[in-house]
Amino acid sequence: MIGTGHYLFLSLALLLIGVVGVVTRRNVIVILMSIELILNAVNINLVAFSRLAGSVEGQVFAIFIITDAAAEAAVGLGIIIAFFRNRETVLSDEMDLLKW
Amino acid sequence: MGSSGDPAVMLDRILFDLFAGLAILSAILVVTRRNVIHSAIFLITTLLATAGIFLQLHAEFLFIVQIILYVGGIMVLFVFVIMLVNLDVSLHQMQFRRQWWVGLLLALALGAETVAAIYIGRLGLPGPNTAPPAAVLEPNTELVGRVLFTAYMLPFEIASVLLLVAMIGAVVMAKRRT
Questions:
Q1: DSSP assignment of chain B
Q2: CA–CA separation, A44 vs A39, rounded Å?
Q3: Partner of A71 for a Cys bridge, out of B115, B146, B147, B166, CB 3.0 to 4.6 A?
Q4: Do the chains contact at A25 and B95, CB–CB below 8 Å?
Q5: Cα–Cα distance between B19 and B7 in angstroms, integer?
Q6: Domain segments of chain A: what residues?
Q7: pLDDT beyond 80 at B3
Q8: What pLDDT, on the 0 to 100 scale, is given for residue B1?
Q9: Cα(B39)–Cα(B75) distance, rounded to whole angstroms?
Q10: What count of other Cβ atoms lies within 10 Å of the Cβ of residue A98?
Q11: Is the pLDDT assigned to residue B72 strictly greater than 60?
Q12: Is any Cβ of chain A less than 8 angstroms from the Cβ of B116?
């Protein structure tokens, strides 16, 4: 039997890989994909705890998180397209219009 | 409580190792590949492996939602935008920031903290060899639907408003200024 701890460590590994992607990559699209990885890690945690508690509510929250991920991806990619049209770049450290 | 010789327990174990290994391996490839399209394809692999984990956790509805919505919807959106935005120039530029080791260090610190938290709180969790939870959530889709449309009716409606806002926002953002 696979215990809840196994799922927690899998989720932790995915979360850390996502955090490293967000913090170190320069390409904004890869940063958005890393955020999807982080949200997925959260979903694994929620479903594992839903199974542990014998209640379906964790899965309902996971559905809400998938909804949020869809909304975030749509708006984020819209912003990337708008930015690319103006500055011809997808690198996050060239997005420095507010830098003094 | 299943003994380690039980074939069903063995199969459970093998499936978990397979899906978890696939998910972690392709997640690492997502953040390290130079080509963005390759990253997107490995992200699809990670999402499918996660769907397998959901199926193993007896969350059948989430399994199918994950495949239809994530792999079928969000990833198509990603690939579309990569095609629109694809810069051959960016392939030959530096893919990581100069201070990447600071990020790696911070992530390792976060990981150590979380491992410590799980280790301290492990008494609340059943270990790998304890019995499965008593309640079996069957039939899964019906139960999820019932909870979603009774106890979580208001959050459900707010989520639909959020999707509407995101739809309008994406259209306004990506619209060409005339």
A1: ---TT-HHHHHHHHHHHHHHHHHHHHHHHHHH-SSHHHHHHHHHHHHHHHHHHHHHTT-HHHHHHIIIIIIIIIHHHHHHHHHHH--HHHHTS--B-TTHHHHHHHHHHHHHHHHHHHHHGGGGS--TTSPPPS----SHHHHHHHHHHTTTHHHHHHHHHHHHHHHHHHHHHHSPP-
A2: 9
A3: B166
A4: yes
A5: 18
A6: 26-89
A7: no
A8: 45
A9: 11
A10: 5
A11: yes
A12: no
pLDDT of A6-32, one tens digit each?
A: 899 999 999 999 999 999 988 899 999
When comparing pLDDT for B4 and B71, which is higher? B71
Q: Which amino acid is at B32?
A: T
- Cβ-nearest to B135 among A25, A54, A90: A54
Count interface pairs A-B at CB distance under 8 A: 251
Q: Per CATH, is A26-89 categorized as 1.10.3720.10?
A: no
Does the beta carbon of B8 lie under 8 angstroms from any beta carbon of chain A?
no
Mean pLDDT across the stretch B118-127?
73
Global pTM?
A: 0.88
Q: Residues B101-137, buried b or exposed e (16+ Cβ, 10 A)?
A: eebbeebeeebeebeeeeeeeeeebeeeeeebbeeeb
CA distance A33 to A35: 5
Could you tell me if B61 lies within 8 Å of chain A, comparing CB atoms? yes
- Of the candidates B103, B110, B133, which has its C-beta nearest A54's C-beta? B133
pLDDT for A90 equals 83
